[in-house]
Amino acid sequence: MLSSNSRYLIRALVPKRFHRTLRWIARIRQPRRAYLNLSIPAAPAVASPYSFAIAHDNPLKELGDKYRPTKRLHNYLPYYWAHFRDIRHQVRSVLEIGLETDRSLRMWEEFFPNAEIIGVDIDPKCRAFEGARRRVLTGHQGDHAFLKSLVDSTTYPIDVVIDDGSHLVKHQIASFNYLFPRMSSHGIYVIEDTGGVVEDFHLATVNAMKSLIDNTMHWPCDFPASNWLALDGFGDEASWMDKNVVGVAFYRWMVVIMRGRNPRDNPYLGSSHE
What is the signed CA dihedral for 201, 205, 206, 212, rounded to 10 degrees? Predict the structure, then answer.
């Protein structure tokens, strides 16, 4: 069953509720799928040849050691590196919600050499962190009027949003609902600090973001699976989220949501490529 926050997210971003309802009913009629049933060995026979899935020796790790933001202690930087390394020179606008210090702003300013770095905090003292390509605004992430003025003030559409703000579920979801549709067409939205680390023991924010998996995996009703290569676009039955969410990644205490053109970002669809 969907959590209350998942239902809220869907109501806020998916206007075609009737179509969604029909899809849910169709799923209910399907037989239940068995959960994974893994047999866990007492110990691996051979040690893994690597210590972590993402290499730690990278430029962002070096910047983390230099500026020492708190996200470094949560081990977020390897995942940021995995998602940002190929776009760091193309990104033109980065928004970070929640500052307290200028450590993270300076790290992002050096990591994204061509971007304006916008910081947001409710404490006006954080305005002292402005300088060079850093701009700081005073406001509340749950205030839509403030978020509108922020979006309207940027030179370019926001490419990257990093929510390290209040850590409250209602604010995390409110900020996402407003900002995600207003990002650049291939923007990346990150929510830091979810779950038990901020006393969200029921994983409300995480469960709300899980609903985006359905959007990423959208499949038109009655479209034959055997003809998948011809499915290079969705019709009116698809919601905006179906067409614009291309991926969701969950890490410990962190969620990354990727905008894109679903399924049009695949250059091989609708063609004769084999």
Answer: 160
Q: In the chain, what's the furthest Cα-to-Cα distance? A: 59
Closest CA to 247 of 205, 212, 199, 198: 212
> What one-letter code names the amino acid at 191?
I
What pTM was estimated for this model as a whole?
0.85
CA distance 22 to 243: 19
As a whole number of Å, the end-to-end CA separation of the chain is: 39
Supply the DSSP string of 21-88, one letter for each residue: HHHHHHHHHSPPPPPP-PPPPSS-SS--S-SSSS-S-SHHHHHHHHH--HHHHTT-HHHHHHHHTTTT
Are 155 and 93 a contacting pair, CB within 8 Å?
yes
Q: How far apart are CA 211 and CA 242, in angstroms?
A: 11
Q: Decide: 119 and 135 in contact? Cβ < 8 Å.
A: yes
Task: Show pLDDT as tens, one digit a residue, over the chain (274 residues).
Answer: 445 455 545 455 545 544 554 454 455 445 556 677 887 777 767 878 888 889 888 999 999 999 999 999 999 999 999 999 999 999 999 999 999 999 999 999 999 999 999 999 999 999 999 999 999 999 999 999 999 999 999 999 999 999 999 999 999 999 999 999 999 999 999 999 999 999 999 999 999 999 999 999 999 999 999 999 999 999 999 999 999 999 999 999 999 999 999 999 999 998 654 5
Which single residue is written with the structure tokens 């924010």? 205
Q: With contact defined as beta carbons under 8 Å apart, do 136 and 145 qualify? A: no
CB atoms within 10 A of CB 145: 9
Domains of the chain: 91-219+236-259 (3.40.50.150)
Among 12, 49, 6, 2, which Cα is nearest to 181's? 12
